[in-house]
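Customer escalation, tier 2.

The customer says the design service returned an amino acid string that "doesn't look like it belongs to this structure." They asked us to rerun it and document both sides in this ticket. The original C-alpha cells are below, unchanged.
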C-alpha cells in the first residue's frame, strides 16, 4: 500500500523517498571510505622494522635474474641494504653502483665515497635500463 504525502502541492510516495534516502546514505558512506583510503597516514620508514636485510649485490642479482617476481616480492617493502658508497649527492647516494637511495632531507652526516654504509628504505622500483634498484625515504643506519 502506497502512502502519499501532500506537501505544498507536491505528491511524494513513501517508497520513492525510501529509495532516495538509501541511495544518499550509500553515496555518503562511499565518499567517507574513499576519502580515508586516499588520505591515509604516511608510513614512517625510519621507525619500521626492515622486512629484508641484504647486501646491495645480493638484491641486485635477484632483480637481474627475474625483475618481475622480485618487484612483486620487494615493492613497497622496507629493506635494509649494505654496501660501499659509489656516488654521493645532496639528497641521494648510490651503493655499489646498483642501489639508488633517495633521502627526504639532505644528508647531514659526513659520507665518503668507497666507505661502507647500511641504509634502510622503501623499495619503489627497479630501473631495467640502468639496472638500479630505487629506494626512497632512506635513513642511514651506520
Amino acid at each position: 500500500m502506497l502512502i502519499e504525502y501532500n506537501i505544498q502541492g507536491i505528491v511524494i510516495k513513501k517508497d520513492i523517498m525510501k529509495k532516495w534516502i538509501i541511495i544518499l546514505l550509500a553515496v555518503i558512506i562511499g565518499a567517507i571510505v574513499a576519502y580515508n583510503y586516499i588520505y591515509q597516514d604516511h608510513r614512517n620508514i625510519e621507525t619500521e622494522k626492515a622486512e629484508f636485510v641484504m647486501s646491495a649485490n645480493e638484491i641486485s642479482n635477484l632483480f637481474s635474474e627475474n625483475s618481475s617476481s622480485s618487484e612483486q616480492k620487494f615493492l613497497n617493502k622496507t629493506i635494509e641494504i649494505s654496501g660501499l658508497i659509489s656516488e654521493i649527492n645532496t639528497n641521494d647516494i648510490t651503493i655499489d653502483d646498483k642501489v639508488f637511495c633517495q633521502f627526504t632531507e639532505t644528508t647531514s652526516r659526513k659520507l665518503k665515497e668507497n666507505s661502507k654504509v647500511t641504509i634502510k628504505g622503501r623499495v619503489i622500483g627497479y630501473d631495467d635500463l640502468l639496472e638500479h634498484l630505487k629506494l626512497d625515504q632512506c635513513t642511514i643506519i651506520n
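Tier 2 assessment: The sequence is consistent with the input. The chain has a mean pLDDT of 85. The beta strands are 4-7, 10-13, 52-55, 78-88, 92-95, 99-102, 116-127, 132-140. Sent an explanation to the customer and offered a walkthrough call.
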